[in-house]
């Protein structure tokens, strides 16, 4: 049944291709698990402080574990992309510039999904100049599902209290910066 549900979800995402609207992400009721769990459980204090939206586990493209709760209490931009998406390709340099502009004030996290080829994801990061931000490997679709993302290029901007605002790309650097200023800072 789990495999059937994942197959239906994958089919729905593929059918939306590079366009479409995203559902308002909202806050997930339970945590999602991506391809690699972290080795240490988060402390009870961090679980209380992290909003449900940031209670997820994943793996970076380099294979190291990533705990979404590490983002709690600060502004975050989650960028959902696929390596074969032309909109995503075009946006990469703008995302990299925005990440550089905000520095340590805003955490940027790329979520690479909708493809089973990890090498294609790594080539995408290299081509777009986005290696300076955390890039998560979501070949399973668990993070897209956790954040209720139905298309790429999509963004989820999370404020320090855990409130969120979604946007669908393509976004240039000025538009992305305006959304960050309005919804995260």
Automatic annotation (TrEMBL):
Signal sequence range: 1-19
- Domain Thioredoxin, chain residue ranges per copy: 23-185
Keywords, comma-separated and alphabetical? Signal
Question: InterPro entries given for it?
Answer: Redoxin, Thioredoxin-like_sf, Thioredoxin_domain, Thioredoxin_ResA/DsbE_sf
Q: Which Gene3D superfamilies match?
A: Glutaredoxin (3.40.30.10)
Question: Any keyword Signal?
Answer: yes
Determine the domain of life of the protein's source.
Bacteria
PROSITE patterns reported for this sequence: PROKAR_LIPOPROTEIN, THIOREDOXIN_2
What is the name attached to this protein's record? Redoxin family protein
In which organism is this protein found? Actinomadura monticuli
């Amino acid at each position: 049944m789990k495999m059937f549900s994942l197959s239906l979800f994958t089919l729905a995402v593929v059918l939306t291709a590079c366009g479409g609207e995203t559902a308002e992400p909202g806050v997930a009721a339970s945590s999602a698990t991506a391809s690699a769990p972290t080795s240490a459980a988060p402390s009870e204090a961090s679980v209380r402080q992290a909003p449900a939206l940031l209670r997820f586990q994943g793996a970076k493209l380099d294979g190291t574990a990533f705990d979404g709760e590490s983002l709690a209490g600060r502004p975050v931009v989650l960028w959902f992309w696929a390596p074969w998406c032309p909109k995503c390709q075009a946006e990469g340099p703008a995302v990299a510039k925005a990440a550089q502009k905000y520095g340590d004030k805003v955490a940027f996290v790329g979520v690479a999904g909708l493809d089973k080829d990890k090498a294609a994801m790594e080539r995408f990061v290299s081509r777009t100049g986005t290696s300076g931000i955390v890039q998560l490997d979501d070949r399973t679709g668990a993070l897209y599902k956790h954040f209720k993302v139905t298309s790429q290029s999509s963004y989820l901007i999370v404020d320090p209290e855990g409130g969120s605002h979604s946007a669908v790309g393509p976004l240039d650097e000025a538009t992305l910066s305006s959304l960050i200023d309005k919804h995260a800072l």
